[in-house]
């Protein structure tokens, strides 16, 4: 029987010849990832023996370096945990970064594998053809102990990409166009494919896959193609994996064609992305207090590069804060070496340590009541980035950078006009 | 002992797409569970946790629990909420609820069958929902057996303890751990 990507991976991981939507399967998990905040209310310290230390990674990301003694204690518990169970893959402060970035750049997310972490944006790994998703802390605890978890095989919605992505369009714009037009995908897997996919670089694929959580998709999957293999040749040379691509006649709950050449920069309005995004060209004037570039969705090197190019030789508008958070220590180092950090700082941006920080309103860049922020991070829920009385709009790194310079939500095209 | 699958309580009715950040605000993640629970719905229904009585039932619309993996269910359990009823759940949130031992039923049209304040009696294993205030019984989708066993057994932590995977902690601490 022909399979979608998720059917193929869940069949393999559960030792079945085939699986179909609605079926419940028990899968072997290839990589279970634990983050700092899981050490808060958890029984990780009581684990007698882990199932397999080579299939566990621990990444400190949400609140590092620790902003409070309580957060510092999560670090202590994490260090005890990896020492007790001989876990080599430990990304402590200094080797850290936002979990989804770190596990991708360390080569821990591979095609055909099952990856889990207690963070809803674990679906980011779908860009690398992995059945990656977030699950709750108790389930991660169970995987640590048993190496297994269960899934209800979801029906798949396929996005068939045609045309070519315009250079100024980001994965964020593609995602927001989809979320705005089609709404939520609760209990479904999303799958991307089609002839247009070759024009979508890995950084944009990772943004799209990350954001799948915002429309409630269980998984957001891309095929393993030349771009995937090129990425993996860099981060995981000499590693073997099983590309898991959809069969030509696989059955989908729906197939939706997106002509990439028609996508324009998009903005999500505060609250949700579901049926709540508009083309930037049609947005009425929104003045801003803060502009944020970062998170697992858009804190990649490519995102910082775009931001640096736009702000080069210009200044952040008076009264606006531009905060830039590289997604990992590796991204930070690359951005320093390539001069992006200097360019951003010269323009008046604050380049922070790599952490989740402002994205979830926890530290370094939270919003006051009444403030307006345009963010390239993952989530625009009310209260997400600080005060519940703040307003969070969402757009691509290019949109955020241009907005910071102009003082209202704007496109880079407007910079030429402003300067003239 | 009474079964956690058979409960009775007053309904609190919420809307569509209630998200996790509304239930469990980011700053509340800095707090121990009992304090964090007092901040549920700070943005949209301030003061709600103080009105909850043990046994109460939370009813919601579509896509209940969109958002993060943060353990909102643990806060509900702490407040004494006995059951969730929704027209549709986000799967991550739904699984969290069941794993914390909180029955969570899918009831299409729930908000047409239930008004805020109605007294409900639920048998999650049998799929029975009785709206005592209206005097109407509804047959709904029961929880699957592997889920009812999990909840009867006290949730995933108890199962891992029973399986010998975790050191037991003394009975005075909550499922929430040590903080
Ligand atoms: S950057 Fe934001 S969305 Fe990504 S893992 Fe951190 S808190 Fe979650």
Largest sheet composition of chain B:
7 strands, mixed
Figure out the total of helices of chain B: 8
CATH topology of the largest domain in chain A: Aconitase, domain 3
The CATH homology group name of chain B: Aconitase, domain 4
Describe, in plain words, how this protein is organized in 3D.
The complex is a heterodimer of chains A (420) and B (179). Chain A has 13 helices and 18 strands. Chain A has helices at residues 5-13, 69-84, 99-105, 137-146, 171-182, 202-211, 226-235, 295-298, 301-311, 329-337, 340-346, 397-406, 413-419, and strands at 24-28, 31-35, 56-59, 90-91, 114-117, 131-134, 148-152, 156-162, 189-193, 219-221, 254-259, 266-268, 277-279, 290-293, 321-324, 350-351, 372-375, 391-394. In chain A, α5 (171-182) links the parallel β8 (156-162) and β9. In chain A, α5 (171-182) runs parallel beside α6, α9 crosses α11 (340-346) and α9 (301-311) packs parallel to α12. Chain A is globular, with a radius of gyration of 21 Å. The N and C termini of chain A lie far apart (61 Å). By secondary structure, chain B is an alpha/beta fold. A 7-stranded mixed beta sheet of chain B has the order 4-3-2-1-5-6-7. In chain B, α4 links the parallel β2 (57-60) and β3 (83-86). Chain B starts with 5 loop residues before the first strand and ends in a 17-residue tail after the last helix. The relative contact order of chain B is 0.17. The chains are: A alpha/beta (420), B alpha/beta (179). The structure holds iron/sulfur cluster (SF4). Residues 62, 98-99, 119, 121, 295-296, 356, 359-360, 377-378 of chain A line the site of iron/sulfur cluster (SF4).
């Amino acid at each position: 029987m022909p399979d979608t990507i998720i059917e193929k991976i869940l069949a393999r991981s559960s030792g079945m010849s085939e699986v179909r939507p609605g079926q419940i399967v028990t899968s072997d998990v290839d990589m279970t990832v634990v983050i700092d905040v899981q050490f808060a209310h958890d029984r990780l310290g009581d684990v007698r023996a882990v199932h397999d230390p080579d299939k566990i990674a621990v990444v400190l990301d949400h609140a590092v370096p620790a902003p409070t003694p309580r957060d510092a204690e999560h670090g202590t518990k994490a260090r005890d945990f990896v020492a007790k169970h001989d876990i080599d893959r430990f990304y402590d402060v200094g080797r850290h970064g936002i979990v989804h970035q770190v596990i991708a750049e360390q080569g821990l997310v591979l095609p055909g594998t099952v990856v889990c972490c207690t963070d809803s944006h674990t679906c980011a790994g779908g860009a690398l053809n992995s059945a990656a998703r977030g699950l709750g802390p108790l389930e991660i605890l169970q995987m640590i102990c048993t190496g297994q978890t269960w899934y209800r095989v979801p029906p798949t919605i396929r996005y068939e990409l045609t045309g070519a992505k315009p250079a100024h369009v980001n994965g964020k714009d593609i995602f927001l166009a989809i979320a705005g037009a089609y709404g939520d995908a609760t209990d479904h897997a999303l799958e991307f494919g089609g002839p247009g996919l070759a024009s979508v670089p890995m950084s944009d694929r990772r943004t799209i896959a990350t954001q799948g959580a915002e429309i409630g998709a269980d998984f957001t999957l891309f095929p393993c193609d030349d771009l995937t293999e090129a990425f993996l040749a860099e981060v995981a040379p000499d590693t073997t994996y099983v590309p898991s691509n959809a069969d030509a006649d696989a059955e989908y709950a729906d197939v939706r064609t997106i002509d990439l050449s028609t996508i324009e920069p998009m903005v999500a309005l505060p609250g949700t992305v579901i049926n709540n995004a508009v083309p930037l060209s049609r947005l009425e004037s929104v003045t801003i207090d803060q502009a944020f570039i970062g998170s697992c969705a858009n804190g990649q090197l490519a995102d910082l590069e775009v931001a640096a190019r736009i702000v080069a030789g210009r200044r952040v508008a008076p009264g606006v804060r531009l905060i830039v958070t590289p997604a990992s220590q590796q991204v930070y180092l690359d951005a320093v070496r390539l001069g992006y950090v200097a360019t951003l700082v010269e323009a008046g941006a604050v380049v922070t340590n790599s952490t989740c920080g402002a994205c979830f309103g926890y530290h370094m860049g939270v919003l006051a009541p009444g403030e307006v922020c345009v963010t390239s991070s993952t989530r625009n829920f009310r209260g997400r980035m600080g005060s519940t009385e703040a307003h969070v709009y969402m757009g691509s790194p290019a949109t955020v950078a241009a907005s910071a310079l102009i003082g209202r939500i704007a496109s880079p095209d407007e910079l030429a006009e402003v300067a003239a | 002992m009474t079964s956690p699958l058979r409960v009775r309580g007053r309904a609190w009715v919420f809307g569509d797409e209630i998200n996790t950040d509304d239930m469990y605000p980011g700053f509340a993640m800095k707090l121990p569970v009992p304090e964090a629970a007092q901040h549920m719905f700070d943005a949209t229904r301030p003061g709600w946790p103080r009105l909850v009585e043990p046994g109460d039932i939370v009813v919601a619309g579509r896509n209940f629990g969109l958002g993060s993996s943060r353990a909102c269910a643990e806060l509900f359990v702490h407040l004494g909420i006995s059951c969730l009823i929704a027209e549709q759940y986000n799967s991550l949130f739904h699984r969290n609820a069941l794993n914390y031992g909180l029955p969570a039923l899918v009831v299409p049209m729930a908000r047409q069958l239930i008004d805020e304040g109605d007294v409900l009696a639920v048998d999650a294993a049998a799929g029975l929902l009785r709206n005592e205030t209206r005097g109407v019984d509804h047959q709904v989708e029961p929880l699957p057996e592997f889920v009812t066993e999990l909840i009867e057994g006290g949730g995933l932590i108890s199962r891992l303890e029973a399986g010998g995977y975790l050191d037991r902690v003394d009975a005075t601490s909550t499922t929430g751990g040590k903080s």
